[in-house]
Amino acid sequence: MNPLLIVQILQALLAAEPAVITAIHNLLSGTGTADDLAVLGADKIAWQAIADKAAAEVAKIPPTTTKIP
């Protein structure tokens, strides 16, 4: 994976969810605690709920017979 892309992803996460970046940093640096794991676990649940809702909305779109060139 491109290191610049990784940095850009982490910057976006930092702006949106600083607690997640802090938890990741703590775990990667060896200073992580159960609290850090709890933060990531809660975030994972929240993102899964968003993904599930998006999938449900996509499933509502009727199939099309029109070909896109």
Which descriptors would you attach to this protein?
elongated; 69 residues; mainly alpha
What helical percentage do the residues reach? over 70%
Strand proportion, as a percent range, falls in under 5%
Number of strands: 0
- How would you state the average pLDDT, rounded? 88
How many domains comprise the coordinates? Answer: 1
Give me the Rg, rounded. Answer: 18 Å
Shape: elongated
Which structural class is indicated by helix and strand composition? mainly alpha
Task: Calculate the terminal CA-CA distance, rounded to whole Å.
Answer: 31 Å
Instruction: List the helices and strands in order.
Output: HHH
How many helices? 3
Provide the low-confidence segments as ranges. Answer: none
User: What does the main sheet amount to?
Assistant: none
Can you put this structure into words, describing what you see?
The protein is elongated and about 55 Å long. The longest helix has 26 residues, at 34-59. Helix content is 74%, strand content 0%. The chain is built from three helices and no strands. The protein has helices at 3-16, 18-28, 34-59.
Question: In short, what is this structure?
Answer:
This protein is an all-alpha fold. Helices cover about 75% and strands about 0% of the residues. Helix 2 (about 20-30) crosses helix 3 (about 35-60).
